[in-house]
Specification:
The chain has about 260 residues and is an alpha+beta fold. The protein has 2 domains: about 130 residues, no CATH class; about 130 residues, Hypothetical Protein Tm1070, Chain: A. Helices cover about 45% and strands about 30% of the residues. The strands form 3 sheets. Strands 1, 5, 6, 7, 9 and 12 form a 6-stranded antiparallel β-sheet that branches. It has a 4-stranded antiparallel β-sheet with strand order 8-4-10-11, with no helix packed on it. Strands 2-3 form a two-stranded antiparallel ribbon. The longest helix is centred in the middle third of the chain and has 38 residues.
């Protein structure tokens, strides 16, 4: 059962490897150093477990733990049970069997712990690499929904339409460096350019900006999108770019997010 539980760890590692990351350098070197650290830690566990832990267990076995055996003999005499006392004497006379069992159990536990530590460190390295990937610029595709279809289709094979307002949010998450948003383009479902904002905007560290599409503007359709181009003078943490799609009427509120995806 423990092996089955550990089997999910390499699967998570493979998923993280196959996941597309944003542009930026340092990913390969981060993996190399993280893998080296994992190998060193596992090697240290193996050496300590093989040459130190087994010696400690063997020493404990050779000591025979006489106070415990004495207490067990006293307890067996009170109960009048000879079998327990005989078993204790057998354990005292034959410590080698117990030593071998302890060594075998210690080796198996050592192997399981080593595998668990290695896989955990490698998975942590994948997460750290994704979190620390830096970039000097990207072109980001952000899904937007001017409306969505819902309900059943009518005789004209059309479903009901729910109009949405959309807000593009661009957040500079780097605490030390500014970024420049060079261009924001708004395209409809067919890819036609509807609006373009070429005015460069500088976002200071941790600053944000937004672009709003009105509720009544349905020209984008269900497949509208923003294309955002940004750059920085030095490698920075890529900004969070997403759209917030909202419908509010009476007491009903519909809100959902669409996260942007780097395409260049």
């Amino acid at each position: 059962m423990l092996a089955q539980d550990l089997a999910i760890v390499p699967l998570l590692l493979v998923v993280s490897l196959l996941t597309e990351r944003g542009a930026g350098g340092g990913g390969s070197s981060a993996w190399v150093w993280a893998s080296l650290r994992a190998v060193v830690v596992v090697a240290a566990i193996v050496v300590v477990g093989r040459f130190v832990l087994t010696r400690i267990l063997a020493l404990a076995t050779r000591q025979q733990n006489e106070p415990v055996f004495r207490e067990r003999r006293r307890h067996s005499r009170r109960r009048g049970a000879y079998g327990t006392s005989a078993a204790s004497q057998v354990c005292v006379r034959k410590p080698k069997g117990a030593q071998m069992r302890l060594r075998k159990n210690g080796d198996s536990r050592l192997g399981i712990c080593s595998i668990a530590v290695l896989l955990t460190l490698m998975t942590g390295a994948a997460v750290a690499e994704e979190r620390q990937a830096l970039s000097r610029g990207q072109t980001v595709y952000v899904p937007v929904y001017s409306h969505i279809w819902y309900g059943n289709v009518d005789s004209r094979l059309k479903a009901s339409k729910l109009l949405l307002s959309s807000m593009l949010s661009i957040r500079n998450v780097d605490p030390d460096h500014s970024i420049v948003v060079n261009m924001v383009r708004y395209h409809d479902t067919d890819g036609k350019l509807l609006k373009e904002d070429s005015l460069a905007r500088t976002l200071a560290p941790l600053a944000s900006t937004d672009v709003f599409v009105e509720f009544k503007d349905d020209t984008g359709g269900a497949g509208a999108k923003f294309i955002v181009v940004w750059q920085a003078d030095v490698p920075v943490n890529p900004p969070i770019i997403e759209s917030v799609n909202t419908h509010f009427q009476g007491t009903q509120l519909t809100v959902f997010l669409s996260r942007g995806r780097p395409i260049k």
